[in-house]
Design brief:
Structural class: alpha/beta
GO molecular function: thiosulfate-cyanide sulfurtransferase activity
CATH superfamily of the largest domain: Copper binding periplasmic protein CusF
CATH architecture of the largest domain: Beta Barrel
Radius of gyration: 31 Å
Oligomer: single chain
CATH topology of the largest domain: OB fold (Dihydrolipoamide Acetyltransferase, E2P)
Number of strands: 8
Order of helices and strands: HEEEEEHEHEHE
Distance between the termini: 91 Å
CATH class of the largest domain: Mainly Beta
Protein name: Rhodanese-like domain-containing protein
Pfam family, one: Rhodanese
Strand order of the largest sheet: 3-2-1-4-5
Number of helices: 4
Number of domains: 3
Strand content: 25-35%
Domain Rhodanese: 143-191
Signal peptide: 1-22
């Protein structure tokens, strides 16, 4: 009788052990597949942002093109936009932008377009238009510097502004700045900074 149970018990034990390990292996593979899918989704979300320079926009075709990267590594991407796209006013050729997008079927759609703002150096403070207006209205002693090219400055500039374009600043450095280091110095240009 013992032999009968042993003969029956050994194959059943082997079958149970095989199923146990096969089940675990299947669960491990399933977990690995889920982790890969999650990792791919995270990468897809991270890749769903383009930062670069707007090279074109067509309101008729509802497309915007952005160049990402520099030099030989630069790539241009075209995205569609629709009435739900926010910030489309920031998609102007030549302007730096950040475009969040999503894949819809075969097409990439711009979800949100933001200007890519310059990072202000330490010790530099940004002021808004209303604050600058108040400073001008109150005749606050300051140097108001228009950093645009001379041709743009000659077309129009803020009252009392002097033209200090970036190439001049790069060339002459502090020689074009006020000698008194306590002088309020305000720079402006033609776009988002």
């Amino acid at each position: 009788m013992k032999n009968h149970w042993l003969r029956l018990g050994i194959p059943l034990t082997l079958l149970a052990v095989t199923l146990l390990f096969a089940g675990c292996a299947r669960d491990t593979a399933s977990v690995a597949q889920q982790e890969q899918a999650s990792s791919a989704q995270t990468e897809k979300q991270a890749a769903a942002v383009y930062t670069g320079s707007i090279v074109g926009k067509s309101n008729k075709a509802q497309t915007v093109s952005i160049e990402v990267g520099k030099g030989a590594d630069a790539q241009t991407y075209m995205l569609k936009f629709d009435d739900d796209t926010t910030g489309i006013e920031h998609a102007e050729p030549g302007e730096a932008a950040i475009i969040n997008w999503e894949q819809r079927g075969e097409d990439k759609f711009a979800v949100d377009i933001k200007p890519k703002l310059a990072t202000l150096p330490e010790g530099v403070t940004e002021i808004d238009v209303d604050e600058l207006y108040q400073l001008i209205e109150n005749d606050t002693p300051m140097v108001l510097a228009d950093a645009r090219p001379e041709s743009r400055y000659n077309q129009a500039h803020l009252p009392g502004a002097v033209n200090l374009p970036v190439p001049l600043l790069t060339e002459k450095k502090e020689a074009v700045l006020p000698k008194d280091k306590d002088t309020l110095l305000i720079f402006y240009c033609g776009g988002f900074t």
